[in-house]
Amino acid sequence: MTENLTATPPTPPPTGDGAPRLRVIGQYVRDLSFENPRGIPPQGEGEPRPQVDVSVNVETRRANDVPNRYEVALKINAAAKRGTETAFLVELDYRGLFEIAGFPNNLLGQVLLVECPRLLFPFARNIAADAVQDGGFPPFLIDPIDFLALYRARVAQEAPKAQETAPPSPPA
After folding, report:
1. What confidence score (pLDDT) does residue 17 get?
2. The whole model's pTM is what?
3. Of 7, 73, 118, 163, whose CB neighbour count within 10 A is largest?
């Protein structure tokens, strides 16, 4: 029995002049550093797993060459310690180049600081995990990150600063 299956390519959504559009142009490792100051880690059963502190930062900038093009940097730093000794350090600067158009100005920051890092994170997480494992340590996976919660905290932190620098309201 034969079946005739024809694949129809998906139809892209209509892109009128004002339709919101987010497109990944490319992504890359800008900088990766792994340090293993003690050499080969102990492999004993009773050896405690290192305590790992992870920090994540997101930076954005407009690309100068093309309109609607932005670069988003996802920076991950992880420091593992056993007691007072450093077990390993990993620093990753992972970036994506995005075309973003059609979003209202009040949503552009949220797209850059939430949606773009959300797209980059799985790749950056895998690169950091591979670097740690290649350094002789057990697999290290960073827990999923709620970029929306980080964005809201950032906005809440910047709100008082904006009120302090705003000119006084005119009397009624």
Report:
1. 60
2. 0.79
3. 73
